[in-house]
Design a protein that fits this description.
The protein has 86 residues and is mostly beta strands. It contains no helices and six strands. It is 0% helix and 38% strand. The chain is globular.
């Protein structure tokens, strides 16, 4: 993760080396243009980073996890990240 005052960037070290941008203290774009990582906005609640994502792109295979859980264009995900140990 890379953090600036306006953005948190999450770098995934999978074979595709994907990058996810989380705009901090912002509102979702209107209208949201669907993308594979959706439109992510974030804010802090104490020491917890809260990431709210909408606008996930729907493709040929619509699964959100390795277990094969399906999703639709209406998916709305809220994630919470907190450091549990230094």
């Amino acid at each position: 993760m890379i953090q600036t005052p306006d953005e948190v960037v999450i770098l995934y070290s999978n074979p595709n080396h994907e990058v996810r941008h989380v705009r901090m203290n912002a509102k979702h774009a209107t209208p949201v243009t669907p993308s594979w990582y959706g439109d992510s906005i974030g804010h802090y609640e104490g020491d917890t980073l809260v990431v709210d994502t909408v606008g996930m792109k729907v493709g040929a295979i619509n699964v959100i996890d390795r277990a094969g859980s399906p999703y639709s264009k209406d998916l709305h995900v809220v994630e919470r990240y907190r450091l549990i140990s230094y």
